[in-house]
Amino acid sequence: MKIGILTSGGDCPGLNAVIRGAVLKGVRIYGQHFAGIRDGWRGLVEGDVFDLEQRDVRGLSKVGGTILGTSRTNPFDGNGGTESIKATLARLDIDAVIAIGGEGTLTAARRLSDEGLNIVGVPKTIDNDLSATDYTFGFDTAVSIATEAIDRLRTTAESHHRCMVVEVMGRHVGWIALHAGMASGAHAILIPEQPASLDQISEWVHEANDRGRAPVVVVAEGFIPAGHEHPHAERGLDTFGRPRLGGIGEQLAPEIEARTGIETRCATLGHLQRGGVPTAYDRILATRLGMAAIDSVVGGVWGTMVALNGTEIVHVPFADATDVLKTVPQHRYDEAAILFG
Ligand code: F6P
């Protein structure tokens, strides 16, 4: 059997470890052959593939990014959809596909599977927002990078008696903010799931400052302060009615400074959180998921994704992973909030 592998959507530390795990187990245990599909669904639509051999994956578990390349191409968005992919697979003699990706990728994979393709999924996102898996690889790395960055930002803030706002990734959910904020002892953590007003944020900042600390506010990029639910967005203005310049961290910093009188700076960590070597935890999780994906292919368990359940790797239907995002539950936020201020 010839198995195609693709990585799609935003990249994520651990993607190469998945590829390595799948190829090594697939070749050594099952005697399978592999095709590397370039740049996600684009490569599948256009037939841009290469023979993926054991030697190509040597030493890969510690390498960030993806040797396959990635893109945000959606196969159903004017790209031919199922029929064109089926034709490409037949032409290239590829019998099955392992799609490694986040919610968008797995939703496309689910539809392709429903329409008859032999496809299995591997969940990927630094955001950790996919249901049906306890953790996604890449999350631990992103949290470690963000935590180290916040630790560093704290010492400069302390030297200058400043407040520091640190914006981390998380468009829809606040897992990275929650974990990095808890790990680094942030005085406020702001996430999309939890409303917090500017008054409340200023109060937390004041409390920390009154105790002689340099206040640290960790904010997820998708956070919107209570009472400012994008009234100006459609006019190209930011949350506070000014020309949109930066993310929520950049927008919040001057508001905090104006309300508290404490000099405030912002650091936006951005794609730093997605780059570089994966942590040991992510390498192991990603490798195990890759090996389990090959088991799914060989067992013909189509239309499923591999997932982490406790300490075990399990196989779950695509539907379980794509129907709802895994948000931060109230009790996890309340637990962290005990430490604010
Ligand atoms: O979904 C992963 C993620 O890293 C989000 O946290 C972030 O909002 C987005 O991707 C950034 O995407 P891009 O790399 O396309 O700017």
From TrEMBL:
Residues annotated to bind substrate: 125-127, 162, 169-171, 221, 265, 271-274
Keyword Cytoplasm: yes
Protein's pathway: Carbohydrate degradation; glycolysis; D-glyceraldehyde 3-phosphate and glycerone phosphate from D-glucose: step 3/4
Similarity comment: family membership: Belongs to the phosphofructokinase type A (PFKA) family. Mixed-substrate PFK group III subfamily.
Binding positions for Mg(2+) per the UniProt entry: 103
Site residues by UniProt (Important for substrate specificity): 104
E.C. number(s) listed in UniProt: 2.7.1.11
Catalysed reactions listed for this entry: beta-D-fructose 6-phosphate + ATP = beta-D-fructose 1,6-bisphosphate + ADP + H(+)
Gene3D superfamilies: 3.40.50.450, Phosphofructokinase domain
Name of the protein described by the UniProt record: ATP-dependent 6-phosphofructokinase
Domain Phosphofructokinase, residue spans: 2-296
Chief location category: cytoplasm
Keyword Cytoplasm in annotation: yes
InterPro entries named in the record: ATP_PFK (IPR022953), ATP_PFK_prok-type (IPR012003), Phosphofructokinase_CS (IPR015912), Phosphofructokinase_dom (IPR000023), Phosphofructokinase_III (IPR012829), PKF_sf (IPR035966)
Binding site for ATP: 10, 72-73, 102-105
UniProt xrefs under NCBIfam families: PFK_mixed, PRK03202.1
Subcellular locations according to the entry: Cytoplasm
Principal EC category: transferase
Record-level Gene Ontology MF annotations: 6-phosphofructokinase activity; AMP binding; ATP binding; diphosphate-fructose-6-phosphate 1-phosphotransferase activity; fructose-6-phosphate binding; identical protein binding; metal ion binding; monosaccharide binding
Main function: Catalyzes the phosphorylation of D-fructose 6-phosphate to fructose 1,6-bisphosphate by ATP, the first committing step of glycolysis.
SUPFAM superfamilies: Phosphofructokinase
